[in-house]
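Tokens in:
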């Protein structure tokens, strides 16, 4: 017992004289202080975990892509038969009205030549011009090759929509009527949208079918993309065909 008491006295902090002569016993230190690096690491782990949880939550609510595009139905103005372009009265970017004279073509030669007017079938905008006065005018469609050869191409600016190619592994929960956030890159605006339809063929298969290839398969192992048509409320905003867009389709919590 004497040895134990002696060790205890030796381990106990010794009193030291203060400036006023009184004895002050130092406060014992209980362990080493925690390194500040561990605290920072703990905070970083919490932040990373929170970001990961928010990302997972967002992915469960939305299906997104930044590969969407503004599209519309092209309206072709073509010659009814082989001939020669005599006049073209409009250029790319011009507004046109239904019935407006756009061009004239000459069919036949000599005394059998007739001048045929080409008029606009719609109110729209000229988006492509493929000829000039004096050029040969091919028929509107080459039957042997199934190729459209228009002199002018028009678009109705009031009938545009978004086509969003969605990875086939994510398109499952997408349904018509779901709300969509559409970001038009050229406008820097987020516009309201709505899913109208989900394609029944992949974008690749659709392209092959338009070319008359019924096989619609080329052995590619890339993940197919399914076209989703989205109606977007753009009002009088100047959308143009081919403009890129990003979409977020709300697939949960509606």
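Residues out:
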């Amino acid at each position: 017992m004497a040895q134990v008491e002696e060790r205890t006295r030796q381990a106990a902090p010794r009193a030291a004289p203060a400036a006023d002569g009184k004895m002050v016993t130092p406060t014992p230190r209980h362990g080493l202080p925690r390194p500040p690096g561990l605290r920072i690491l703990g905070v970083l782990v919490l932040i990373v975990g929170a970001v990961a949880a928010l990302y997972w939550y967002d992915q469960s609510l939305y299906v997104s892509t930044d590969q969407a595009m503004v599209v519309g139905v092209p309206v072709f103005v073509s010659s009814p038969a082989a001939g020669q372009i005599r006049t073209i009265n409009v250029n790319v970017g011009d507004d046109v009205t239904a019935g407006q004279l756009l061009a004239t073509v000459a069919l036949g030669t000599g005394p059998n030549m007739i001048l045929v007017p080409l008029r606009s079938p719609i109110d729209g905008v000229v988006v492509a011009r493929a000829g000039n006065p004096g050029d040969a005018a091919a028929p509107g469609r080459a039957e042997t090759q199934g190729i459209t050869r228009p002199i002018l191409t028009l678009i109705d600016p009031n009938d545009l929509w978004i086509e969003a190619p969605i990875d086939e592994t994510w398109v499952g929960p997408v349904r018509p009527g779901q709300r969509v956030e559409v970001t038009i890159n050229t406008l820097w605006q987020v516009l309201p949208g709505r899913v109208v339809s989900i394609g029944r063929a992949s974008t690749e298969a659709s392209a092959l079918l338009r070319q008359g290839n019924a096989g619609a398969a080329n052995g590619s192992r890339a993940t197919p993309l399914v076209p989703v048509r989205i109606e977007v409320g753009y009002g009088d905003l100047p959308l143009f065909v081919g403009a890129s867009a990003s979409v977020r389709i709300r697939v949960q919590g509606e």
